[in-house]
Write a structure and sequence with these properties.
mainly alpha, 242 residues, 52% helix
Amino acid sequence: MNGASEGQEPSIRQCLLTSLEELLAAAAGNDALHSEVQASLTLVQSSEANGNKADSFLRPFKLACESKQSKIIAAALEGIRKLAGAGGISESAADPYAVASDEGDDETGERTLVEGVLLWVCDAATDSDAAVQSQAISVILTLVQSSSNVHGAPWLQVLRSVFVIHRDSKSEGLQQNCSQCLTKIMTTIMQRLEQHGGQVAPSDGNGGVADSAEASTEPTVADSEDHANGVHSDEPPQLFVK
């Protein structure tokens, strides 16, 4: 594999190759996942031109986030962070990995890929390893900063996940990271509220804004501000407009 030239950002293909190789090493001992990663890696290696996105090769990262093995999850999160930072994850494409049984998601067919990836990261963030949780927060920040096409239920799940880590963590550094992440998310939501007349507009599935009365049920930030400012409670904030 040819690395990027000095001073040149690595290509999406290079990021994908590196991420899959690292995930392959971490998955040693998990035969099913190891085979999945190897198959994707072989496909990428066999082609010089895989398009300008990594969308078709993300399944191993999803499975790794669900593995409940900290070492594997950490490798998957690092790969997702690299790919998101390089612009390798589509914003407006539908999530090809969504399934009807996804918990809390009644409209999996409308979910974008970047929203699906955020939900994978939230699942990974339930790992008890503080290092994995910190990495998950970093990936969430990267995805939030690099994408303008996150709406509705994924926002709610992200806010809940970050809140729970902040509430339960004994690490001041991790709590600070969570506060920064919550502040960034709420700033993004507020900007969209201003842009769309007081509503966080849902996606139309094509990267645009849908005209829907359901926009009134999008998560708001009013009940979350205290948590970013260091005020805690025992329950996640209420994020839906009644």
